[in-house]
Amino acid sequence: MVNAKLNRPDIELIKISSLVKIYPPATLAVDQVDLTIKEGEIHSIIGENGAGKSTLMKALYGLIPYNSGKIYLRGKEINFGSPKEAVRAGIGMVHQEFMLIPSYTVLENVILGVEPTGYFGVLNKRKARERVEKLVEEYNLNLNLNARIEDISVAARQKVEILKLLYKDVDILILDEPTAVLTPQEIEELFSRLKRLKAMEKTIIFISHKLDEVLELSDTITVMRKGKKVTTMVNENLTKSELARAMVGREVVFTVKKDEARPGDEVLRINNLTYTDRYKQERLKGINFNIRKGEIVGLAGVEGNGQFELVNCIMGLIDDYQGEILINGVRIDNLSILERRKLMAYLPQDRKDTGSAQDLSLISNSIMTHHRINPGLTGRWEALLDPGASRELTGQIIDKFNVLIPGIDAPISSLSGGNQQKVIVGREFMLNTDFVLLDQPTRGLDVGSIEFIQKEIIRKRDSGVGILLISADLDELFNLSDRLLIIYQGRIVAEVDPAEVDKEEVGEYMLGAKGVAS
User: Fold this and answer.
1) Are 271 and 288 in contact (CB under 8 A)?
2) Is 275 within 8 Å of 305 (Cβ atoms)?
3) Which residues contact 508 (CB under 8 A, 6 or more apart)?
4) Which pTM value belongs to this model?
5) pLDDT tens-digit map of 202-239
6) Cβ atoms of 341 and 334 closer than 8 Å
7) What angle is formed at CA 373 by the lines to CA 369 and CA 374, rounded to 5 degrees?
8) How many CB atoms lie within 10 A of CB 239?
9) Which residue among 148, 343, 351, 477 has its CA within the 20 to 30 Å range from the CA of 212?
């Protein structure tokens, strides 16, 4: 491994020259991009969904081949055939979806694949532990090496991912949306850790949609748009508005304008909802709350504290819970998923695996659920869909929700993430139900798509619909919610008015430092 640790910001560490990546048959994902990363800096790369930033980093990291151009590391041309080659050269990547084995311990995950061995190839676990313990102490990571991944927090799992790379002795860390599921306190801790890594001669490439974080952390910021590099700027006196304008090519409003809520009749009530999973773990513990028409109730919590189970109970994907769930005064506990869908719209957190069928056409994805409950999509024979009506509904979604598409018959996978989400939001909002369940509606989206979808959520509320909003983004919860519930270890530990609390106080509830009975 090349290991020239000079930590001087004028040293050119990585140089990308005229890089081109084309996804078949003709999607130009990266278009003649030039980029320089200097040694010892935190360099952020920002852009809309589909701007090419992740593709560029995947090409650098050896995850995908590129069509033309050159990449240099410390002046030497490189072209990694796999991430393993990149790691050997000192480059590591922490993905948004963690690559950890839940049933293994922290130590086992860190050394997996690079285990030190002694005579006859026997694992030298003592030597491995000593080295990992030294890294934990050196970088102040505060991890229990004996804990199983499934038993630690999301923030701790992220530390494990970073520790894995430090164990492999990488000097360059690429972090993809690392704050997506962290509380304000955990984000502050992560930033302190990243600055410490920089001080200890590491170079960090930071990919994020959160412009406040980019401005706080970065030495240098590169903006990409539609596969091209728009600009690279030194982070001196830059503003959030300037970055957003460079990203999307227009002014972006960050504060959602909304009138005061006018709640009406109760639309959702949950009484004493309790759920114990097959491992005898109590995931929901006596959940009680209600939602009225014309209001947005937000649910804040560190992921893994019962949100997933709550959504699945409401949807009918979990049916062995105790307690009551009522929509418009009707108990839905014994209703099928289809019968429940007649009463609620639902936006799942995973738009690719749950919210859509990626290989199917835009039309097929637009009429999902509608095809079972909307008689206007069938002709005389109920078992047969009316192709004209299906195309008409799809066209309405495209027009009303400003979806950019290559063609109405194209697969939904050919759309950017933001446009895929607009299709799913449009499909669900056009069901015209009194209750809407939104699970991470803007996760992973760029500022332009977030702005559009949040305005549609407010418009839906103002039409008299009751909304349950689950989000890991506290900015979003504070912007949109009329009331805010906080969940911790399966319990609702607080209900607050977003106008009367700050994010730090909500973060304390989320971490169990406040509102939990001893």
Assistant:
1) yes
2) no
3) 185, 514, 515
4) 0.73
5) 999 999 878 888 999 999 999 998 899 999 999 999 99
6) no
7) 100
8) 10
9) 351
